[in-house]
Amino acid sequence: MVAHREGTQMLCTDSHKDFITHVAFDFYGRRIATSSSDMFVCVWDASQDGKDWTRTAFWKSNCGPVWKVRWAHPEFGQILATCSFDRTVQIYEETGNKKASRLARAGIQVGRGEASNNWVKRSTLNESAVNVTDIQFAPRYMGLMLATGAKDGMVRIYEAPDIMNITQWECIHEIDFFREALITAFPELRHHPVKEVSNGKEQSKEEPQFPDIRISALSWSTCRFQRQLLAASTDSEDERANACRVVFFECVEERKCYEWMSELTIRENDPITDIAFAPSSGRTFHQFAVAIRDQAFIHHINALEIQEVVESDKAVTIGTVRRKPAYVQKVVYKVNLVAGINANKVRIWRLSWNVTGSVLSLGGSDGSVHIWKRFPPNIFKQIGYREPQYSSKHKRGATSNGQPFY
């Protein structure tokens, strides 16, 4: 459902045949994309006055339940990405209006006889061997880049080298996001199999098994005054995951790699369902929200100092001339908890900031929406609340015992 000042409009009454897993607004808030466990994706367009929403296209996206759907920045065109239980990420592009017969041949159905928008699948990213649980487009100033998170804790970062041809995507980084944090907390996980000889037979000790650290959410930082950060959270039930509920990696442009920021690791005793960096709006620090059961916590991440690190091993000798060693800036961060929000015993599933990063909306598992605003210095007060609009019959079946469907 979509709420506005004059009331609430119910969407998707007959569009999806199963649970709706994700809803995403485009950059301007004029379009909505919805994904569902029925493997379909729907696109909705707002009327001129914003009171009515019309389904303009829907199609079968994947061969399994679709967990997330995301819009790219409109600078790159009308582009959607979906991730699914079938281990793939699909990239779609809207190419303009075409006749319904051509849409039917392409496998895309036009909704209710209105506009005939055409969405075409441009690429399939299938490097993951397990369920892909979240995707996030990078900030537009980084180019057309997409981060994907999987059930095995792997994060892959893709880039479209030519934004005019989004059929080609390159996997430029592949990061085992929680491995270093787990090894630091549990050194025994560092050990590798050791071969031994006993009675003339070769035996090997078993390597300690890593816990199943599933990625529940990804988020890119948007502060251009500091280095780019990429955060990932986990909702794993394994107790060892408490040592690294939220992990941060920093983009080091000099090395063209991502490095784990150990000082930023957030440790919690409960699964985390969502995380969200706030838009920077000129801030010199990162504002970061974390959803844990029925609470949301706001953190500020500050850069304390910048150190010049000399990498003498990177110096190159050509003939008798030795080049200067490389200098890399190392940023020291500190994370501070500045505020906490309580959702009145309702499990929080989604977090969303407004465009200035001053208002935080919480989506509850019962269908409610809680809206909180920041007041100086760092006090958050509730300014709005939207009650669930559906019946108790639907309410019982919509939460899956408070756990994510994937």
In total, the number of strands is: 31
Widest beta sheet: strand line-up: 3-4-5-6-10
Q: Give the averaged pLDDT, no decimals.
A: 81
Tell me the distance between the termini.
Answer: 22 Å
Task: Compute the CA-based radius of gyration.
Answer: 23 Å
**Structural class by helix and strand composition:** mainly beta
| General form | globular
Helical segment count: 3
Uncertain segments: 98-107, 111-116, 192-198, 391-406
| Biggest β-sheet description | 5 strands, antiparallel
| Strand fraction | over 45%
State the helicity in percent bands. Answer: under 10%
WD repeats: 13-45, 341-373
Keywords: Lysosome, Nucleus, Protein transport, Repeat, Transport, WD repeat
Pfam families: WD40
Subcellular location: Lysosome; Nucleus envelope
If you had to describe this structure to a student in words, what would you say it looks like?
Pfam families: WD40. Belongs to the WD repeat SEC13 family. With 406 residues, the protein is mainly β. It is 5% helix and 49% strand. It is built from 3 helices and 31 strands. The strands form 9 sheets. The chain has a 5-stranded antiparallel sheet with strand order 3-4-5-6-10. A 4-stranded antiparallel sheet has the order 7-8-9-11, with no helix packed on it. Strands 12-13-14-15 form a 4-stranded antiparallel sheet, with no helix packed on it. A hairpin with a 2-residue loop joins strand 23 and strand 24 (295-311). The longest helix is centred in the middle third of the chain and has 7 residues, at 179-185. The chain is globular, with a radius of gyration of 23 Å. The chain starts with a strand and ends in a 9-residue tail after the last helix.
